[in-house]
Write a structure and sequence with these properties.
With 325 residues, the chain is of the alpha/beta class. The protein is built from 14 helices and 9 strands.
Length: 325
Amino acid sequence: MTIRMSFTVEKKNEPPQVIIHKPALPVSKISNLHMFKQIEKGTRCNEQELNRRKKVEEILQELDSLVGLHTIKKLVLEIQAYLEIQKKREKENLKNNPVVLHMIFKGNPGTGKTTVARIVGRLFKEMGILEKGHVIEVERADLVGEYIGHTAHKTREQIKRALGGVLFVDEAYSLARGGEKDFGKESIDTLVKNMEEHKDNLILILAGYKQEMCWFLETNPGLRSRFPIQVDFPDYTIAELQEIAELMLSQRQYCFNEEARLEMESLFLEILHKSREYSGNARLVRNIIEKSIRQQAMRLVEQDQVSRNDLLTITRNDILLASQN
């Protein structure tokens, strides 16, 4: 563990911040855990099955590449392994235990809920669970109508679009906030009815803030049993936000210099100190990165000579200006 002090000239009257670096705990990679790695060399597969396995591997590697989300990765791997084994049991004429795959995602915005939903849709398509694997993202306004009968129709239309894939309802708790006379209850009833009717061709994921989703399930006790898979998406740590920032820059062919890297870390600490929780998580990081790149462009366009290194490098001042806008 390392400890250092950080302060800025603009805030010289404030006490310095203490930055503590803790070494990351070792985490097993999905690529090392995946059951396909354990297949014996003598196992024979046709070309179609080999292509399917390759696509599943690629999707799991994409999931593995996401920063953090260790519990979620482990859960997806467990579901994938369970479904694969059920297929093998079916081939041996053993009892195939059906699994309900409707899910609840709980967490703040920017913690990866939508990203994971898209990966899950594609994964289940390659495993033969879903026909298409696409994700239809909706919110209250897409489901709730303005008069009696309109809500059921709107909700059924969205379900129809999602058949063969995933219907992802963001801020799902808002459907229950209007009380018994609100049309949101009609949408909930329609969702429940259709998720049972299309259980073999539709996965419903209800998502939202953790506390609000817990309240939502308490006010609708019949929903809890219909959603056996409930996943908490924690806020990213400062180290994970830093890793996300480095990754976003690398994907755009930029990099921090050392001063910029330290400034970015100090900025995350300041946000945490002010709000006690991150406002947007990965979205916050993306906004700062994009603003920093624009600030770099403003700086370089005034220079007569611009080197390759100049074009690659984000400086401390770029980040300072980006954080002020």
